[in-house]
Design brief:
Helix content: 25-40%
Number of domains: 1
Shape: globular
Number of strands: 10
CATH superfamily: Nucleoside Triphosphate Pyrophosphohydrolase
Structural class: alpha+beta
Order of helices and strands: HHEEEEHEEEEEEHH
CATH class: Alpha Beta
CATH architecture: Alpha-Beta Complex
Length: about 190
């Protein structure tokens, strides 16, 4: 199945996901270059909510650009296998080798605004990340490492502490709380 089909089949969790799903699908229809950063209006990204085996902790990185603890993920850069992108980004950003999907299904959808910034000396204009999130699991005892060109720290936090550690109010209130709520409803209430 293609990522477009996965998104079509995805059942939104709330109104934010419902509206973002519609816009992401429209964007994919209208932009042949939706998976490339060369589309400066917006492009597809993949993120991971990485939990430990007991689902009590979340793996976060301290991202230099955002000056905040945040989830792991990155640009698709032409790869339409968003799950593969999310797995690759976790391995690259945190050094985790044992990361696996809890499910191959999409865990969350969101459109994220990215303020203009400089990356590696180049100006990047304000744009959108049309994001697909996956729930991944990793061994919390595995050694972590910092990817110095992107982050300055990688650590496991209790689920609520992970939210508290973020400096990005919108992410805390609208994304990270939602991800923890979905985790609880899908995997802890059963």
């Amino acid at each position: 199945m293609s990522i477009k089909e996965d998104i079509v089949n995805y059942r939104p969790f709330n109104i934010q996901e419902e509206k973002d799903k519609r816009i992401i699908l429209q964007f994919l229809e209208e932009h042949d270059d939706a998976f490339f950063r060369s589309n400066e209006l917006g492009h597809m990204t993949a993120s991971a909510w990485v939990v430990n085996k007991d689902r009590t902790k979340v793996l976060m990185a301290y991202h230099k650009i955002y000056d905040s603890w945040a989830w792991l993920g990155g640009h698709c850069d032409g790869d339409e296998d968003c799950l593969a992108v999310a797995l690759k980004e976790v391995r690259e950003e945190a050094g985790v080798k044992s990361v696996v999907p809890v499910s191959r299904d999409i865990f969350s959808l969101e459109i994220l605004s990215v303020d203009s910034h400089y990356k590696r000396g180049n100006y990047v204009p304000t744009h959108l990340h049309l994001n697909v999130t996956y729930l991944l699991e990793a061994d919390e005892n595995e050694e972590l490492f910092v990817k110095e060109d992107e982050n300055s720290g990688v650590a496991w936090f209790e689920k609520d502490e992970a939210i508290a550690r973020s400096n990005e109010k919108w992410f805390k209130e609208n994304i990270y709380k939602k991800l923890n709520q979905k985790l609880k409803e899908l995997y802890e209430d059963n």
